[in-house]
Structure formats: C-alpha cells, structure tokens
Write a structure and sequence with these properties.
By secondary structure, this protein is an alpha/beta fold. Helices cover 43% and strands 12% of the residues. Strand 2, helix 2 and strand 3 form a beta-alpha-beta unit. It is elongated and about 105 Å long.
C-alpha cells in the first residue's frame, strides 16, 4: 500500500511552495488508493503555534486535500528518545560541544585551506573528563556518525543520485537544549508510519542522503524518494521575499479558485500541459512523477487568473445559488442573473459588483459629444418589466430616431447604463437593471 505524508511546521502560513509538496504527495496516494498523512512538525515549542496548525488544516480543507489521519510530532517525543538511545548504544550518535562561533571559525578555516566545510569529528577524541567538563560548562549536542561511503538511490524525479558521505558533515540530530531536530524525527515517523514514498523539494537532497543512513542504522526499509524542483518567480528570481504575497490564505481571499491553483501546480515543471481540471481525481489521471524535471520552475501568480475565470464561468447556477442568495439576489431572477454575468466574472467575488450594478445602478459614463444622444435615447427606453427582447427593440427605436448605428449606437447606451465600456450581453443585462435613471 502506498503511504505518503505532508509534514509542514506550524510556524507560519502555507504558501505555494508548501502546497506543491503536499499536492504531489496527495496525488501519489490518491492514484494508488493509498493513504495520505498530515504530520505537523511541531517539535519547536517556541515557534510552533496552534493558530498556524489550524490555518494549515483550513488551507488544505479549502483545497480538498483531505488526509487519512493527522499526527503531531510533539506527541511522539518518547519515540524519538528511544531511537536516539538505540543509536547511542550503536556508537552512531555522539555528543559534541562546539559553540556556533567555534563551528563558524572551523568552517572559515577549512574554506581558506580549500577544503570542504565538513565537521572534523573533534568530539570523537575527547576524553570522558573533557566531556564532563564541557558538559557542565556549555552542554552538548548530538551528531549522527555517517559511514564514509557513497550513498546511492534512484530518485523518482532526478534519477540516479550518488553522494559521498565523507563530503557531508555528520548531521546534528539533537540540540544542546534537548530539542529533537527534523532529520531524526522525520526518519522515526516515516519508519513508524510505514511511509513508502517521500516527495519533497530538491533542497532536501543532501538531507535525504543522511536520512538514508539513519534509516538503515535503525534496520528499516528506505522509502522511495523524489525531489521536485524549487519554484522561482516569473523572471527566475527566488520566491523567498515574495512568500508573504503567495500565502494560500491570501490567494483564497483574492478569489483564486482551488482547482485553478491545483491544476497549475500539478503540471508546473512537468512535460504535461496545464489544463483546468474540476476534481482531484481528474488531476490524478495521467499523473506521473517521471514527467517532472529537476530544473528550477517558474511560477507566476498571474497565471492563476485565467484559470480561475475559466472555472467560474463554467459554474452552474446550482453551484452559485448559495452565494447569490447570500448577496440578496431575488430567487426569481437569480438564474437569469447568473446566466447574464457568468462570462464576465473573473472570480466569484466579482459577482457582488454585478449585483450592486443591477440593484443600485451605476455612475453613468457619458462623453460630452453623446449627451444629447443619450438623453433622447433614454426617453425611448421601455418601462420595466423588460425581457430579453427589450434591448433590441429599444436600440432599433433609437436608431430610427437618431440615425446612429453600430458602435456609435450601442456603446454610449451601454456606458450610460452600466458605467463601463464592456460587460455582459446587454440583451440579458437590461432586464435585470432595477435602476435605469441616468443622471445627465
């Protein structure tokens, strides 16, 4: 059985980069009728907040990325302790005492000598008395002792990867204050939860190499790993400074449709075309990780708007009925109202603007050269109630009375009634306008 997971830290709001990871893992599980686990990495008590955990769940629910179960790492600290004890007993987890400043000096010295900035394992030659003295003075942290051999795996996106463990520092698994870090917690969770596939960003490649050795040291099966490309801005710039504007909650507030966002991210960076899908099952069809490339992938938030508009224009009246009712659109005209404005509603939010226009009227847009023409035309406007033939009969009467035709006839009338030079078919919109008093 395929089991995947999404493991965000509840230290902030989800953004498009997080979502891409969640979506790919969700699609793998859905396609194989497997399980998708939401796992909150909340082992940092100072930065993890309940409100962020709630926001993560709300964002995923909005997108339809439901989970089969939810786990919190803060509830599993004893399991990490058990694994740490086991690794210590094996001699694979050793205590170190360097301060951040000392480590930084070591790295700079190695770089100046043309060597890779890899931890020198100085702690392994400390005597017991040295350790006791240092432990009292500053406390220690714990590193995993890597076997200095090549770590190989076949990545589901990148292909065959081989990393020399001697070129990588022994990873810190437990901080001096006792906090278990991601590298160990993630391994223990993946083992205990039977995770079969791990899909995450390419910035985790080196981390994956070290985790493979930890998994093997704990005598467990190594899952299938795949590392997707990182997203950049439309010009190839990093997204780090823009993530505040790309938070999922902000995109939702702006009116982005969930399936527009999912349709884009499910194909972005792959060989497949971006096409609007109406369901996650539709996205899962034809989804294959090997269609994705490893090169940085450009993401432009502007690409979401035509996809959103396409989805909204395809919504049925039944889809929109609750929102129209909430706006106060009378039930007897609601179907006609939606039929009139749906093609000109970029987001669901824009429906309100059209209803305000129909209910209250608009500030007329009249060129000086058209004022006399509009005044004459308004005298010929049929009284309410009007129907779908009212626009054609009215414009025919105005044409006969004024001699105007084509754009010179229709555009000034649209602008006077709606305050805009574009919009829905006037034959559908005119019967809905409840206030057609045009102030000259």
């Amino acid at each position: 059985m395929t089991i995947t997971r999404f493991a965000p830290s509840p230290t902030g709001h989800l953004h498009v980069g997080n979502l891409r990871t969640a979506l790919l893992n969700h699609l793998i599980a859905r396609k194989s009728d497997g399980a998708f686990i939401l796992r909150l990495d909340d082992t940092d008590p100072d930065r993890s907040k309940p409100e962020f955990a709630d926001a993560i769940r709300q964002d995923l629910e909005w997108l339809g990325l439901t989970w089969d179960r939810i786990e919190t790492q803060s509830a599993r600290l004893s399991r990490y302790g058990d694994a740490a004890t086991r690794l210590k007993d094996m001699g694979r987890l050793y205590e170190c005492f360097e301060t951040p400043t000392e480590l930084d000096l070591k790295r700079k010295k190695q770089l100046n000598m043309g060597k890779p900035p890899v931890y020198d394992r100085a702690a392994l030659v400390l005597s017991d008395s040295d350790k006791s003295r240092l432990r009292e003075d500053r406390g220690g942290h714990w590193r995993f002792k890597l076997d200095h051999e090549r770590i190989n795996w076949s990545d589901g996106i990148i292909g065959d990867i081989s990393i020399d463990a001697a070129s990588v520092s022994d990873p810190v698994l437990i901080r001096g204050d006792g906090q278990v870090l991601y590298t160990l917690a993630s391994v223990v969770d993946d083992i205990d939860m039977g995770i079969t596939h791990v899909v995450r960003g390419s910035d985790h490649v080196t981390n994956t190499a070290t985790q493979i050795q930890i998994i093997q040291a704990l005598d467990a099966d190594v899952p299938e790993f795949a590392h997707h490309s990182l997203l950049t801005g439309p010009q190839g710039e990093g997204l780090s400074k823009r993530l505040g504007t790309l938070a999922l909650r902000d995109l939702r507030a702006q009116g982005v449709e969930p399936m527009a966002l999912l349709s884009l991210l499910a194909r972005l960076g792959s060989s497949g075309p971006v096409e609007v899908r109406t369901s996650l099952d539709g996205l899962a069809e034809g989804f294959e990780l090997d269609q994705f490339g490893s090169a940085p992938t450009k993401f432009d938030v502007q690409d979401l708007w035509p996809l959103t508009a396409k989805i909204v224009s395809g919504l049925s009246f039944e889809d929109m009925a609750p929102q129209l009712s909430q706006l106060g659109v009378p039930a007897d005209i609601a179907p006609a109202f939606w039929a009139a404005v749906r093609e000109n509603t970029p987001t669901r939010k824009d429906t309100e603007d059209w209803w305000v226009l129909c209910r209250d009227g608009a500030k007329p847009l009249i060129a000086d050269a058209d004022r006399d023409f509009v005044a004459q035309a308004m005298k010929l406007l049929p009284d309410a109630p009007r129907d779908c033939d009212s626009w054609s009969s009215w414009t025919a009467a105005v044409k006969q009375a004024t001699g105007r035709k084509g754009r010179d006839l229709f555009m000034p009338l649209r602008s006077a009634l709606t305050g805009m030079t574009h919009g829905p078919d006037m034959s559908r919109l005119l019967p809905l306008l409840q206030n057609t008093n045009v102030l000259m």
